[in-house]
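FORM 7B: Structural annotation worksheet

SECTION A. Query
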Amino acid sequence: MSYAGVKSLVTGGAGFIGSHLVDTLMKEGGTLTTLDNLSTGLKRNIAHWIGHPSLTFILGDCLNPRDIRRAMKNSELVFHLAANPEVRVGPVNTRIDLEQNILATYNILEGMRESKTVKTIVFTSTSTVYGDAMILPTPEDYGPLKPISLYGASKLACEALISAYCNTFGMRGVIYRLANMIGSRCRHGVIWDFIHKLTKNPKRLEILGDGTQTKSYLMVDECVSAMLFGLEHASERVEIYNVGSEDQISVAEIAKIVVEEMGLKDVKFQYTGGVEGGRGWIGDIKTMLLDISKMKKLGWKPKYKSAEAVRMATIQILEEIRKEPSN
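SECTION B. Predicted structure
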C-alpha cells in the first residue's frame, strides 16, 4: 500500500512511536496532520518536518473536541497514538488513564463519527490488556482479559470503544497490542531509567523489583513497519494484532547490557525487591511474551531478538544524549 497523497492524522505525532511513524509516512509522500499536546512528546522529534508543505503540526489536546475537528479536517485515516505512556503513574493519579486514554479515544471516535472522510482508525494498544496471562506466548484470542493496571484497563476500554463504534457507525479499526517498544527518541521505560540513574551514580544501579521480570522488546522502526503492514492486510472490520519479538530478556540482563554500553565497570546492582512477588511496581507484568504467529502468517516478522534490540536501543539513546545541547 502506498501512502503517497493519503491524508492522515497522527495523534501523539511528536512522541516516541508517533514521530517514527511520521517519518515513515512523510518519506512515502503522505500528507499529515499531527496533533500533540507535548506533555510527553517533544517537538524536536519532528523538527526536521516542520515547515514541510505536507505536514501540519497542531499543538492541541485530544480532550478538546475543537482541536480534534480541526486536526481531522479532510483526513482519510487516523493513527491514534496519543496516550499516557507510563504505567506507574496510574496508582498515583487515577484519573490520568481515564482522561488521556479512554476519554481521548472517545473524542477521536466521536470526531470520526461526525467526519465525512475519516472511516479508519489505527490504534496502539498494549500487551498489558492480557494481565498475568496463563498462556505464553499469548495469542490474540486469549481470555478472559484481566488487566492488573489502570493503564491496561484503560487500553482495553479503548479497544472496546473502537469495536463498538466501528460496528455501530460503519468504521474500520486496526488495533495493535504492543510489547515493549524501544529505540531512538525513547524517553521512558527501563533503558532510559537505567541510563538516567547511572549517569547520576556510575557505581550503583537501583533496579525495581527482583530483576527476574522477563519480557519481549522490539525496535521502534520494526513496530512502525508492523503497523503499516497489518493495516494493509487487515480483513476484518476490527482487526487485532500482537506485535513484539519472539523471545524475552530479563531486567537484570538489560541492566548488564546498559552498563556495558556505557563503558562502566564494578557497578553494584541494588534490587528493591519490588511488590507482589518481585514486580517492579503495582501493575507491573512479571512475565510477558506475545504470540505473533498471526502477523507472521501474513508475512511480517521481527528482525532482531530482544537482547539485540536492547543493545541497539541503548547505543542509539546514548548517542542522542551526547548530542543534546544541554550536554
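SECTION C. Observations
The first helix runs from residue 16 to 27. DSSP finds nine helices and 13 strands in the chain.

SECTION D. Sign-off
Analyst initials: ____
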